Amino acid sequence: MHGPDSTHDPALRSWVESANVPGCDFPIQNLPFGRFRTHGSEPWRIGVAIGDQILDLKLASELCPWPARVSVWLEPLAAGDLNTFMALGTRPRRAMRAALSAALADRSDQGPFLELCLVPQAQAQMSLPCQISNYTDFFTGVHHATTVGKLFRPDNPLLPNYRWVPIAYHGRASSVVVSGTHIRRPNGQYKPQEQDEPIFGPTRRLDYELELGVLVGTGNALGMAKTMAQAEEDWFGMVLLNDWSARDVQSWEYQPLGPFLAKSFASTVSPWVVTREALEPFRQPFVRADGEPAPLPYLDADDNRERGAIDVQLEVQLQSRAMRERGQEPVRLSQSNFRDAYWTVAQMLAHHTVNGCNLQAGDLLGTGTLSGPQPEQGGSLLELSAGGWHPVILPGGETRSFLLDGDRVILRAWCERRGARRIGFGECAGLVEPALPWPPLL
Ligand code: MN
């Protein structure tokens, strides 16, 4: 068990001036990892976001003196391999964070070397932060589960297993893409309510889902479950996740085996991994409302009750094509908080491994849509438009029940509290492109 340390000191400042600007997503207290390059011909390398710059860890390992053990950890990072570092565990993560914090702090001895290792974020091309071999999407947003459950089953919104099992389905890792990648409207099969038989064509109900994605650090061997204590130590960090969804395809295909093609066409993640260590100051007690059952022992731990929840504020913004053409900024559609989730990160990991399933470094675990308790806090258009019946009104008079071609969806997240420096996740954005014709034109 750990708590905030000197790397979280809100008074700590960096010699990278843009990191000291109030409200900046990437102050020296954050230090998220990402994978980038500046030219198409250059090999990918891992960097650390600081202010509006990136500390290039390839250059930093070549040009700057480091303690011996830090040099060893920098090798895979310099080669663009985050997974090897992610798998090392808590101690190297904390030691690397301390080393990076010291190197980037005001009056650091390493400053003069590292000034040569900065790349402006505006000049960098980002990739997925790591190799993601598996993607599982949970359903921890109890307000989302209840609201959507009502749309599908008015008399029985929350199924009885919800309060006992961290529900999830196995997603598709191959179609996880980094922020900025355009999203092609998928074709699929669905049954309009007024028709007796299904039809095939571009989805008419394309939606986003506001989620956080947890990246696994240390994995587990096949057959060896993680305890809650191990699960808490073994996750590496978090990204924003947009689990794009075709609602008409979903409602037609989901019974009895769950989501399939309604989800697997694309899922977008933000490029910067905010580490578990950076989130330390924003831990909160994990409390269930009165009348809710206590988790079974394998999903329960003192540490989880004391600090299992994380105060992460979340926001969805949308910019339509018309808004873009008028030079109008994106508009906020909703806000919510990860604190309201029904299950914690450690419970997701512990549950995932309890049958012996082996997690691997870089595996992505989605939280599920994180909606707030109020109707206007829905983390998807399905919720905000009440199943399409009450369209959302945009500035300029446009309405949206579901996404239209040309819409750009932007997810944001940040952590903020008295006595700590605010940290942010950057953005997770995607622009909707028209469907391709079927059969494909040659
Ligand atoms: Mn989802």
List keywords for this structure.
442 residues; alpha+beta; SH3 type barrels; Fumarylacetoacetate hydrolase, domain 2; 8-stranded mixed sheet; 5-stranded antiparallel sheet; 12 helices; globular; binds manganese (II) ion
Can you walk through the features of this model?
- By secondary structure, the chain is of the alpha+beta class.
- It folds into 2 domains: 6-126, Fumarylacetoacetase, N-terminal domain (SH3 type barrels); 135-433, Fumarylacetoacetate hydrolase, domain 2, CATH 3.90.850.
- The protein has 12 helices and 26 strands.
- The chain has helices at residues 57-63, 68-78, 82-86, 90-104, 111-114, 142-152, 228-233, 247-253, 302-307, 321-325, 345-353, 381-384, and strands at residues 33-37, 45-50, 53-56, 118-120, 125-127, 135-138, 168-170, 176-178, 183-184, 187-190, 199-202, 206-207, 210-216, 235-242, 245-246, 267-269, 274-275, 283-284, 309-310, 313-319, 331-337, 364-366, 392-393, 399-400, 408-415, 423-433.
- The strands form 7 sheets. Strands 6, 7, 8, 13, 14, 16, 17 and 22 form an 8-stranded mixed β-sheet that branches. Strands 4-3-2-1-5 form a 5-stranded antiparallel β-sheet. A 5-stranded mixed β-sheet has the order 9-26-25-20-21.
- A hairpin with an 8-residue loop joins strand 10 (187-190) and strand 11 (199-202).
- Helix 1 crosses helix 2 (68-78).
- The model has no long low-confidence stretch (mean pLDDT 96).
- It binds manganese (II) ion.
- Manganese (II) ion (MN) binds at residues 137, 209, 211, 243, 366, 368-369.
